[in-house]
Amino acid sequence: RISIKDLYREPDLFLNQTISVEGWVRTLRVSKNFGFIEINDGTFFNNLQIVFDENLNNFQEVAKLTLSSALHVEGTLVKSLGAKQLFELKASVIEIIGLSEPDYPLQKKRHSFEYLRTIAHLRPRTNTFSAVFRLRSTLAFAIHKFFQEKGFVYVHTPIITGSDCEGAGEMFRVSTLDYEQLPKNPQGQVDFGEDFFGKETNLTVSGQLAVETYSMAFKNVYTFGPTFRAENSNTARHAAEFWMIEPEMAFADLKDNMHLAEELLKYLIREMLENLPDEMAFFNSFIDKALSDRLVQVLNADFARITYTEAIQLLQKSGIKFEYPVAWGQDLHTEQERALTEQIFKKPVFVTDYPKEIKAFYMRLNDDGKTVAAMDLLVPGVGEIIGGSQREERLEILENRMSQLGLNHQDYWWYLDTRKYGGTPHAGFGLGFERAIMYLTGMTNIRDVISFPRTPKNAEF
Ligand code: 4AD
Ligand code: MG
């Protein structure tokens, strides 16, 4: 049994040999006494053409095959006379393993991405989604390779947590009890004592706090797993369930952090250009004609590095009309992030040192007392793909900040311990995996780069 990938890689090895393959019918053309079937077995982009004729003992059944039927085929690999392919399989046996019903939804035409989302369980059988999800798999592995080659330790951080890392309150609650039934104390706060964990818990929004504690043991660590946010924003770049890559380095500052982020992104681009030629060719022809050129340019230039304050000044001076006001103290709106990367710098841009009020509690306070050592990486077409920072390692300043924000210190006692017992400067970031894939492929909707997207009012499948 040969995979179609093997055949395309080294056809000479199999020419004029008897081989067997299995796969699903992608196209079928039948004349009176012969026919052609293209099958795909999922291992490779291209189909294999099967030629058959009346000599098959089940010729009548084969002639009536439906799209997506599963087959086992035996035959001889021969040079093809057709212009479309170099070789084809002259079938001696075609065994019908699973006959597809005639109402198979993926008929031979281009379907819209919107329609394909409604059949997310079938869309991996199309060329676009085959390319997207093969690339996603390769990139996930490349991310592990990148960190493992550097000696980073992979930490599995918990999915169910008792704290809100980002302090944005956008969490999915985890409970065995009906929220309405839980008793309330005289102040009106819900008492979770009767609940499974005996306290309020939620699906993690970020593995950062947990992975930070491991960085104080292993120095360089990373976590890579699913994260969850109940953000009710129905945009093309927000999902309620998405994957995040979060490295954390002890004895490191914001510069080290930016260096690592830039290295990681360039590593992934190189991986794609070197190891995914067929997928890249597909994206270049059907999704974004300038993709490879753009990625090569990114490889060959340093990312821009500016402070938030400089970004505000640049945007104000740009003469670009924005829908939302550009003012120091306001978070950058998507339109402004895109202006920075698409019009002003025309490449990825690190924006650092944001006002503390618009960033999370754990970021290190700068000497000006107003900004924190934050970094966002903005890229053309998508906007923010990375959020990170140097962490506040000074216990007193961290505790002050938590008090100002009304965070209960007892809930974070274990986090604060890392500052008490040999705390060091440290830094890390979170790369949104789906946003990275969008950027690296030119796909424009997050729903089309994750297998079964979870978005507001949508948890089908
Ligand atoms: O900027 P964020 O919120 O940073 C953190 O969570 C930090 N704790 C990470 C760290 O320092 N270890 O999220 C990081 C990235 C964003 O830049 C974005 O790429 C992605 O996660 N992200 C989302 N992706 C898809 N859907 C959403 N709703 C996302 N929210 C954040
Ligand atoms: Mg962010």
Automatic annotation (TrEMBL):
GO molecular function terms listed in the Swiss-Prot or TrEMBL record: asparagine-tRNA ligase activity
Q: Which Pfam families match?
A: tRNA-synt_2, tRNA_anti-codon
Report the main location listed first in the record: cytoplasm
Location of the protein in the cell: Cytoplasm
Q: Which domain of life is it from?
A: Bacteria
The keyword Iron-sulfur appears for this protein: no
Q: Which UniProt keywords apply?
A: Aminoacyl-tRNA synthetase, ATP-binding, Cytoplasm, Ligase, Nucleotide-binding, Protein biosynthesis
| Annotated EC | 6.1.1.22
Q: What class of enzyme is it?
A: ligase
Indicate yes or no for the key word Oxidoreductase. no
Aminoacyl-transfer RNA synthetases class-II family profile domain mapped to chain residues:
133-456
This enzyme catalyses: tRNA(Asn) + L-asparagine + ATP = L-asparaginyl-tRNA(Asn) + AMP + diphosphate + H(+)
Q: Which family does it belong to?
A: Belongs to the class-II aminoacyl-tRNA synthetase family.
Q: How does it assemble?
A: Homodimer.
Would you tell me the protein name for this molecule? Asparagine--tRNA ligase
Taxonomic lineage of the native organism: Bacteria, Bacillati, Bacillota, Clostridia, Eubacteriales
Q: Which gene encodes it?
A: asnS
